[in-house]
């Protein structure tokens, strides 16, 4: 396992070409999103940037979200989206994903984003060489994702489905699974099941990319605290080893210093013994 101080190192084995034409309309799309958010802030319907990027421990929005998720029998995620209690939603693509996509450092083929929410990362990764599926259990989240992205030039390269990651049966396996704020949203007791599903849905030579957040010592959840060892504990029994573990230097706001970037692949040497 390579332990790195930043994610700027890109393994040659996973580099792929990225269409240059994809960048301009993604940038325009991000700009439109930012304008929409600015307008909502002016109307008093959106949290300030300081609040949105504030501490997971102390934001009132997080405490309200926790109450819904832990008290409603259905899990409460639909209610969170209906009420706009989505503190995990950055309102734009994850900077790290944009970096990896634009530098050609993401695997080609089929990609899966569980708990995709508004779908920003799904859209940012989608191109002629990569078809991306976004899953979410919330009907409202899926509707929002479709509304935000259906008119984009790359819309034929992604789809959004209202499905449960733990029960959904994909018609094809994936070359890439990207997890950010999904692992930390499920109860810790479900993490082994999460790893099992990753193993079931990923091709033998596929790759799991994780943004590990929040790396902290706070109590309760969601989001539940995570550590690199939490991922290793459930992924190692499934045959996965970390190719890269690095600090996420593109983390936003108060998330800086509390995120790590991981690339995981199956340890094929064991199967050959």
Automatic annotation (TrEMBL):
InterPro entries: SAM-dependent_MTases_sf, TPMT. Keywords: Methyltransferase, Phosphoprotein, S-adenosyl-L-methionine, Transferase. The keyword Glycoprotein does not apply. GO terms for molecular function: S-adenosylmethionine-dependent methyltransferase activity. The keyword Magnesium does not apply. CDD domains: AdoMet_MTases. SUPFAM superfamilies: S-adenosyl-L-methionine-dependent methyltransferases. GO terms for biological process: methylation. Pfam families: TPMT. PANTHER family: PTHR32183, THIOL METHYLTRANSFERASE 2-RELATED. This is THIOL METHYLTRANSFERASE 2-RELATED. It comes from Salix koriyanagi.
């Amino acid at each position: 396992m390579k332990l790195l101080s930043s994610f700027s190192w890109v393994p040659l084995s996973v580099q792929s070409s990225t269409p240059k034409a994809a960048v301009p309309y993604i940038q325009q799309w991000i700009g439109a999103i930012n304008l929409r958010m600015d307008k909502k802030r002016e109307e008093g319907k959106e949290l300030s940037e300081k609040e949105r990027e504030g501490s997971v421990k102390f934001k009132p929005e997080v405490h309200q979200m926790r109450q819904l998720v832990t008290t409603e029998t259905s899990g409460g995620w639909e209610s969170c989206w209906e009420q706009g209690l989505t503190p995990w939603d950055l309102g734009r693509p994850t900077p790290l994903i944009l970096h990896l996509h634009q530098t050609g450092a993401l695997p080609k083929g089929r990609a899966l984003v569980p708990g995709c929410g508004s779908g920003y990362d799904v859209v940012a990764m989608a191109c002629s060489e990569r078809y991306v599926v976004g899953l979410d259990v919330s009907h409202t989240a899926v509707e929002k994702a479709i509304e935000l992205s259906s008119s984009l030039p790359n819309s034929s390269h992604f789809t959004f489905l209202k499905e449960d990651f733990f029960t959904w049966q994909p018609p094809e396996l994936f070359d890439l699974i990207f997890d950010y704020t999904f692992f930390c949203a499920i109860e810790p007791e479900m993490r082994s099941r999460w790893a099992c599903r990753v193993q079931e849905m990923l091709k033998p030579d596929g790759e799991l990319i994780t943004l590990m957040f929040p790396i902290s010592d706070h109590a309760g959840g969601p989001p539940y605290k995570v550590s690199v060892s939490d991922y290793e504990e459930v992924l190692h029994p499934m045959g996965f080893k970390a190719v890269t573990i690095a600090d996420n230097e593109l983390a936003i706001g108060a998330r800086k210093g509390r995120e790590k970037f991981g690339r995981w692949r199956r340890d094929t040497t064991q199967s050959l013994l």
